[in-house]
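User: Show me a protein chain along with its predicted structure.
Assistant: Here is one chain, sequence first, then structure tokens.
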Amino acid sequence: MPALTTILSLQSDFEKCFIREDRYKLFLEGIGVTIKISLLAVFLGIIIGFIIAICNLSKLRLLRIIGKIYTDIIRGTPSVTQLMIIYFVIFASVDIEKWIIAAIAFSINSGAYVSEVIRAGILSVDKGQTEAGRSLGLSGRQTMFSIVVPQAMKNIFPALGNEFITLIKETAIVGYVGLMDIQKAGDFVKSATYEPFMPLVGTAVIYFVMIKILTLILGIFEKKLRKSDQR
């Protein structure tokens, strides 16, 4: 009967942690917050990363220095520290929703890593492509944006997808600024029920399912890009 006792105990814990007092709504709210932050952060992060990548590849020494300082500082400090500085210092007196501030913090962090991915992708494009564009009368900027960047984006798509996945998991620290994300919801339920196992396992399962769905979606897009290359 020990197995039956364990099953009944788990069932009771599940009911207490997710059903009683509609605690599952906390996790639903947390999922929404996590998705909002991640989507905005990855969008802004790609923009920031592209700008920094161009700076790092620029012929102007000042732009290269700016790009290097940015990537060195961001990659050399913890994301939780960056989040707290941006929230409690930079945006302390600004009336903006918490999740937007968190998304800005994560986009700044992600931009440093995305910039290196984009820079490597641009450098991976054969130099002959640039020479061909210039021979057709295109300017350096036109060649970069019309020929080099589109090819580079196909090469770096898997790495950008991995960055998106990493970003979703990193948002688990937004509880430090009082946001009710998935991890914070789990912590809240754990404190309210004094049951650590079920809330933590539930949190892990939610993250796993989200990441798995995203991985499948990214895999579909990657296959489509490969088919377009074969054509």
